[in-house]
Structure formats: C-alpha cells, structure tokens
Amino acid sequence: MAGPRIGFACVWDHPNPQKTWSYTPWNLRNAMRQFGDVIDVGVEVPAKVQLGLKVLHARRRGGRFVTTWQQSRLTDAYFHWGLDRAVVASGCDVVVEIGDIAPVEKPFYLYQDLSFDLLLDAQDRHGVPLPFGLTRADIERRRDRQRGIYEKATGVLAMSHWFGQSLVDLSGLPPEKVHVIHPGRSSAATEPPPLPERAGPRRKLLLVGRGSFTGKGGDLTLAALEILRREVDPEITLTFAGPPEWPLETPVPDGVTFLGSIPREEVARLFDTHDLFVMPSRLEGFGIVFTEAMSRGLPCVGRDAYAMTEIIEPGVTGALISGDDPAELARVIAASLADDALYDNCAKRAPEVSSWYTWERAGRQVVDIVTGAATPSGRHAR
Q: Which residues form the Glycosyl transferase family domain (predicted)?
C-alpha cells in the first residue's frame, strides 16, 4: 500500500497471541491493515526468558504468591531493547504501541484505556485495590516512567473521552496530543441475526467479566441477586462467565449458573438468551462487553463512573448506579427488568451501537491519525 509504513508493537500473550488483552490488539492490527501498510514490530518473550522473569519477580502478597515480572525494571529494559531492534530492522516510519512498551526514535503513539495516574486516583478516592500485585510505591514508580514516555510520544490514542480527559487533567498531557479512538466489539458476528424478543417476565441476568471479581462488581451483584430473589421474584437468576474457576471460597449460590471461561462465540450467544447485563465495575478502562450487549438490544447496568458514563445512556440503553449499596443495585435491576420502554429504546439503538463500535472504524481512525504524523507536513511530524 502507498503511504508510510506503520510498525505495530505489542507484547503478545503465549501461546494464543490473538487472546492478548481480550482480542483488542489482534483485532486492531487486522483492521489497520485494511487501510495502511502495517507490519509487526512486537516484542517476543521466549518461554524460558519469561519463566526466569516470573520466578525472579515472585512475591508473597495477601497470603499467596504473585509475580510482578511484567512491571519490573528488568522487563522494561528487555522490552526496550527488543522494540528498538525490531523498529530499526523493519524500516517503519511511525509506531503504534499497545500500552507503553518503551520510547523509540521514530514518531510513536500509545493505545491505552487506563493510566497509572488513574489507578492511584481510584485508590485515593474510592479505595480501589491496586492491581498486578504491586505496592503503592511500585505504582508510583510505574506512573513516573509512564509520564516520561507520554512526554516523548507523538500522541496517545485513548479508548474513551473519559480517559482522554484524565490524560490532560491527571497526567498533564497537552490536549492536542490526545486522540479518542473507541474500540470495536470483540464478539461481533459477521452477519448478526435478528434481535431476539425480550417480552416479560424478564428474569435472566448476565455478568461476563474476566478480570477481578470484586473489581467487576461481582460481589455486589451477588448481594443484589439475593435481595431480588427474596423480595422481588425468586425466579430471577444470574449467569456468570469469565474466570476459569469460581472466584469465591463459598459455593456457587442458588440462582447462579457459573460457566467459567468460555469462547467469545459463546459469549455472543449469551447476549441473546438473557434479559439484562449487569456489571457495576469498580474500575473499568472501557467496557467493550457493554457495547457487545447493547448491539444485541440487551440493556446494561453499570456504574456512574469511568467510561461507563459515555457508553450507557440511562433510560435508553440501560442504567447506572452511584455506589456500593446492594439495595440500590437491586432496585435498579428490578426497575430495568420491568421497563418496557427501556427495552424498546435499546432495541432501536442497537443498529447504531453495532455500526459505530467496529474495529474497521477504529483501524481506519488510527491509520488516519498516525500517517499524518509520519509525513513531513503532518501536524505532529518530527
């Protein structure tokens, strides 16, 4: 293809690179290739090297062993070395990095949904536990490193307007360096079937979350389900999918079906067989799963925070809760299940959601932005 050569940098998961970050980099790269000359400059971590890094950075925290190898200085140095070599060998003109792997000599952009500034802010304001098994000092060090990379980057491709604004307010980026690129849907069918009928009584709740159970609000959802089954309708149920094993020490409660980790094709089918998607996340970078549910006419209940406020429109595509009160969540769920207008509105909005949240649109936007940086007359040219 004519135009600048774009290097695509990602630290791929092994042995299934397409599953990295819930398919996001894989889908974005494939979409970008429809609109530009995109080549891989990703960092490969051989299995023996990865094992050594994991063992070297194993720590006992919270009564269990965790490894912080992906956030260590040694890993940073390895990634920087590997990315530099790949960029030089490729002859690319501009680089798109998933996350903030390392600064490079070419113009480069970062594609992200969260920052370490936001993680610290979430802990300070809402008591959200720090992820990755890291201490606050670790996160502060990562924050300082990240800010240094932001300063050198040509721009940051933010997955939401909320995150984009936080880059300006919390991380100090100039607004002109921030570009909002909404992601596409990971479980989208090529030719989606007609939307299902969801006539009352509606009783089937759905939660799909691969991250932290409490981070996704799973504990709050279970508590609300208990209230709903006791005070509203004993036939209300919850289907939960995502983690490979049940995340609690207590048994799976009555009314809950736990599916474990399932393929994304099966996740897509769940949207058509349930009545309400519920995920009141305490920390959510974007929430692609909300757009997947809404594209099938399934209303969503989230939290009045993070990017959920720009995805879910109360009364049209779902509802938002304000805190951690199970009774509030139970009331919002009961009201949503009984709201015929909500289901009509969500079904009408489904084609619009489906047509906007596509990787084809996201890939085209990324290529348009970064190729402008790679030409001598580009606004961000170096």
A: 201-352
Instruction: Write the DSSP assignment of 21-41 as a string of letters.
Output: GGGHHHHHHHHHTTTSEEEE-
Over the range 245-273, which residues count as b (16 or more CB within 10 Å of their CB) and which as e?
Answer: eebeeeeeeebbebeeeeeeeebbebbbe
**Angle at the Cα of 307 from the Cα atoms of 208 and 171, rounded to 5 degrees:** 125
- Whether 146 and 214 map to the same domain: the answer is no
End-to-end CA distance of the chain: 23
Structure pTM? 0.92
The type of residue at 41 is V
> For residue 58, what are the β-bridge partners?
67
Calpha distance 286→362 (Å, rounded): 14
Instruction: Compute the distance between CA of residue 98 and CA of residue 157 in angstroms, rounded to an integer.
Output: 10
193 is a domain residue: no
Chain segment 236-248, per-residue pLDDT in tens: 999 999 999 999 9
- The residues facing 74 across adjacent strands are none
Q: Which amino acid is at 119?
A: L
Q: How far apart are CA 69 and CA 75, in angstroms?
A: 7
Pair (32, 95) in one structural domain: yes
Measured CA to CA, the distance from residue 62 to residue 158 in angstroms comes to 32
Q: What is the tens place of the pLDDT at every residue in 165-205?
A: 999 999 999 999 999 999 999 865 455 789 998 887 999 99
Q: Are residues 168 and 265 in the same domain?
A: no
CATH number of the domain bearing residue 168: 3.40.50.2000
Residues 106 and 17 in one domain: yes
Element (H, E) at 19: none
Chain centroid, CA 199 distance in Å: 31
Angle, CA of 145, 366 and 149, to the nearest 5°: 10
Do 21 and 170 have their domain in common? yes
Question: For all residues of the chain together, what is the average pLDDT?
Answer: 92
Are residues 40 and 104 both part of a single domain? Answer: yes
Q: Which among 296, 300, 246 has a CA at the least distance from the CA of 276? A: 300
Range of the domain at 137: 5-184+359-373
